[in-house]
Specification:
Residues 6-51 form the IstB-like ATP-binding domain. It holds the Pfam family IstB_IS21. The protein is of the alpha+beta class. The protein has one domain. 27% of the residues lie in helices and 16% in strands. The chain contains 1 helix and 2 strands. The protein has one helix spanning 22-35; strands at 9-12, 40-43. Strands 1-2 form a two-stranded parallel ribbon. Strand 1, helix 1 and strand 2 (40-43) form a beta-alpha-beta unit.
């Protein structure tokens, strides 16, 4: 995570491919929390809200 702050805008494309286990979710949450209010973060998903 040390080199991530240098990136102005990070893109997580199609978040549905992130496995829904505790470790993967924790890493994703850490990324979002670390970038919050500092740099841009774009997250996309092809999943509908119902899924």
């Amino acid at each position: 995570m040390h080199h991530i702050p240098q990136i102005q805008c990070a893109i997580v494309d199609d978040i549905r491919y992130v496995q829904k286990n505790t470790q993967d979710t924790s890493v994703l949450f850490e990324l979002i929390a670390h970038r919050n209010e500092r740099h841009s973060l774009i997250i996309t998903s092809n999943q509908s809200f119902e899924e």
